[in-house]
Amino acid sequence: MKSFITLIFFLSFSSTVLADNIDTITVRPADLHMNQLQTGNFGYLLYSKKNKESAPTRVTYISFNVKQEPYHNKPAIEVLQQWDTDTMKHRCFIIFDAGTFSTRLQETYWKALGYSMKFDFESKKVEFINVNNQAAIPDSVRQPVINDFEQSFTRYNLNWHADMIIYSLLNYRPGRTFVINYYDPGFGKAEDVMYTVTGDDLLTDHNGRKIPCWVLNHFNVNQSPEKGYERFWISKKSNEVLKMEDYGGAGHGYRYKIKLGLSGD
């Protein structure tokens, strides 16, 4: 990896629970503040831990390139996301509508699968491309993916694979709950997922400066943290997602994404 990566954000203080002014928003295009979109190059360090005191394992660098480019003569946003360890393990290219952030095209490849998938939301077609000389992709794999893709057109949804970008576009308030109809092309049906602003917190950058953040939570079961959750820290100033903590519940360990600063090529 050519880039020199400097870790910016570290562990945070305990969050303060905010219970005032509870409201719920089912996210629609009007709820996305596209002026908050971060363009250019940025990245996250992804790693796992058995518990909060253990050493990081399965360290992966996730790079993003976000730019505004026309697609089929209409305003669009291109997002290239790549996951690297010692080799490239995942790559995903998505074109979004510039106004609604609906997905117009997605091409995704996972090394572990051995094939890539192309979802054309304009022609409503799915293409499977054998990359690693694997055996033919069976209909038992292809057909559920196609069925879920076709079903996704029944409602407005957002692309779950771009969640770290989507959270930067929301308007946060104490106690606010967002209901997002998420669809991750190729990996299940679209579904409503709830995220609640449960507090605020301070993160510390590499210069020791404190960064005020909103804390956004999704709980796996009945708002019960001990049964697993996804937790995000979003800068109050820039709306960037600075940190994610994913707890599997029942001793399944933790997964983190920490936003990085980059220098070099």
Low-confidence stretches: 1-21
What is the approximate shape?
globular
How far apart the termini lie comes to 10 Å
User: What's the domain count?
Assistant: 1
> What percentage of amino acids are in beta strands?
over 45%
Structural class: mainly beta
Largest sheet: 17 strands, mixed
- Rg measurement, Å: 19 Å
Number of helices: 2
Order of helices and strands: EEEEEEEEEEHEHEEEEEE
Annotation, overall tally of beta strands? 17
Overall mean pLDDT stands at 87
Helix amount, in percent? under 10%
What's this entry about, in short?
The protein has 265 residues and is mainly beta.
How would you describe what is shown here?
- There is one protein chain.
- The chain is mainly beta.
- It has one domain (4-263).
- Helices cover 6% and strands 49% of the residues.
- It contains two helices and 17 strands.
- The chain has a 17-stranded mixed beta sheet that branches.
- The longest helix has 13 residues, at 139-151.
- It is globular.
- The termini are close together.
Topology of this protein?
Blueprint: E1 4-7, E2 16-17, E3 23-26, E4 40-49, E5 57-68, E6 76-84, E7 88-97, E8 103-110, E9 115-120, E10 125-130, H1 139-151, E11 158-159, H2 163-166, E12 176-183, E13 191-204, E14 210-219, E15 229-235, E16 241-247, E17 254-263
Parallel strand pairs: 3-12, 11-12
Antiparallel strand pairs: 1-17, 2-13, 4-5, 4-17, 5-6, 6-7, 7-8, 8-9, 9-10, 12-13, 13-14, 14-15, 15-16, 16-17
